[in-house]
Amino acid sequence: MQDFMLESTVNNYVLEVREYSAPCWPNPDSPIRNSFDLVNAVREHSRHTDRPTVIHDPLGGATSGLFCALSTLSSQLEEEGAVDVYQVARMTNLMRPGVFNDVEQYQYLYHAVLSLVSSQEDQRALQSPETNGSVPLGQTNIAESLESLM
């Protein structure tokens, strides 16, 4: 994480920007739900500042687009209790044409949301007095759940 001061020599304007560096994000070797760790850290910081959030990556926007879509989906789930992965991906692609150019990127969004919802359900089950601190297994099939999202 680094803070920068950007200055406009023409308009005599100064802007403070915080950069989060995550060159290996999302990490293919870690659970997909860990992708939300960076999303949540940036969202938490953004709540306490009036500075703009700038997202960039060295790959021409694919990783940034994925980050923005996951951030939007996480917020949507938090605020509405439901998500529209297709619509978020579509809007992200409209704002930055070509950002999602293969099916794996779309699938990643669906898998990430499914993982986020599953981990939230597990957390609620752990906190529920009816389950006595255990998470019931085998009640849903992840493949079936993923198909219901698509």
From TrEMBL:
Domain Tyrosine-protein phosphatase: 1-116
Protein keywords: Hydrolase, Phosphoprotein, Protein phosphatase
GO biological process: signal transduction
Keyword Oxidoreductase carried by entry: no
PROSITE patterns for this protein: TYR_PHOSPHATASE_2, TYR_PHOSPHATASE_PTP
GO molecular function, one term: protein tyrosine phosphatase activity
Domain Tyrosine specific protein phosphatases span(s) in chain numbering: 33-107
Cellular component annotations (GO), alphabetically ordered: cell junction; cytosol; plasma membrane
EC number(s) stated in the UniProt entry for this protein: 3.1.3.48
First-tier enzyme category under EC: hydrolase
Superkingdom of the source species: Eukaryota
Name this protein carries in UniProt: protein-tyrosine-phosphatase
Organism: Pleuronectes platessa
Classification lineage: Eukaryota, Metazoa, Chordata, Craniata, Vertebrata
